[in-house]
């Protein structure tokens, strides 16, 4: 997710994930299916019982704190691009001869991101430069290596990203104080850890599972299981929060975790904490 940045959901250009309208090398958005009823993405029976009944059911099994660990998606949930991807591609690209409009860049980005990546089963291998070079070139029609490096480096900095929820730090502190372990699960390349350090949020988490390191990308259950292993919890004791129904919700549930859709089922980390049973 580092050269991402738009949010419509096709991964950000050098970001990792289908963006909903912004991302690091362009998280644009070609993945998230609109609004298939939220009930369809919840655990069996939740649509019938209702959310409160499900939460009461969890508390009857686990006590007031319903989950021992919280897993959080990075781009699109914890972090969001500061500027629309197509705007950045266009602005930086002007001096390299990029002529496409922002709408054209966005549409071309979506088409490129939606194509199978033939060089590897993984898009984000190590720093993911080959993949992002392909995306940038297809999106803008420019293959200038200096242009690519400028974009790639931009999405590696805290100038390109900001925290989605300004109250996140206080909420995470309260969760950890209550004994809830915290982890990040992200389809991202190796820039994620230094990016989190630059945003001063890396120390909030007990573990980080990055697809480029785990060699598995959401919705593959492997990456969620790795995060649970790093935290020392069973999948059924963890809940994952992310903004992509397929990658985050279905993937986490396939791994045996609970999962809540960011922007639909939960809208802030305070709400997440309250659902877990921790008051902030």
TrEMBL record:
Protein's name in the database? Haloacid dehalogenase-like hydrolase domain-containing protein 3
What is a single Pfam family found in this protein's UniProt entry? Hydrolase
Query: Which InterPro entries does the annotation name?
Result: HAD-like_sf, HAD-SF_hydro_IA, HAD-SF_hydro_IA_REG-2-like, HAD-SF_hydro_IA_REG-2-like_cap, HAD_sf
PANTHER family in the record: HALOACID DEHALOGENASE-LIKE HYDROLASE (HAD) SUPERFAMILY PROTEIN (PTHR46649:SF4), PTHR46649
């Amino acid at each position: 997710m580092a050269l991402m940045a738009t949010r419509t959901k096709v991964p950000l250009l050098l970001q990792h994930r289908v963006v909903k309208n912004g991302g690091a090398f362009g998280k644009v958005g070609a993945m998230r299916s609109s609004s298939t009823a939220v009930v369809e993405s919840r655990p069996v029976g939740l649509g019938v019982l209702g959310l409160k009944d499900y939460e009461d059911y969890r508390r009857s099994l686990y006590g007031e704190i319903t989950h021992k660990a919280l897993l959080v998606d990075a781009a699109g949930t914890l972090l969001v691009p500061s500027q629309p991807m197509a705007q950045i591609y266009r602005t930086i690209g002007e001096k390299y001869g990029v002529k496409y409009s922002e709408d054209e860049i966005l549409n071309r980005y979506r088409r490129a991101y939606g194509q199978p990546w033939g060089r590897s089963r993984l898009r984000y291998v190590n720093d993911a430069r080959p993949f992002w070079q392909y995306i940038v070139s297809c999106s803008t029609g420019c293959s200038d290596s200096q242009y690519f490096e400028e974009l790639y480096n931009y999405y590696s900095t805290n100038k390109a990203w900001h925290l989605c929820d300004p109250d996140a730090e206080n909420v995470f502190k309260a969760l950890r104080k209550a004994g809830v372990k915290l982890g990040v699960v992200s389809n991202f390349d190796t820039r994620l850890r230094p990016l989190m350090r630059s945003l001063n949020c890396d120390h909030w988490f007990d573990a980080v599972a990055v697809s480029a390191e785990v060699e598995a990308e959401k919705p593959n259950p492997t990456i969620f299981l790795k995060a649970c292993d790093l935290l020392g919890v069973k999948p059924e004791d963890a809940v994952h929060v992310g903004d992509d129904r397929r990658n985050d919700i279905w993937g986490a549930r396939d791994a045996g975790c609970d999962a809540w859709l960011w922007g639909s089922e939960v809208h802030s980390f305070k709400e997440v904490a309250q659902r877990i049973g921790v008051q902030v």
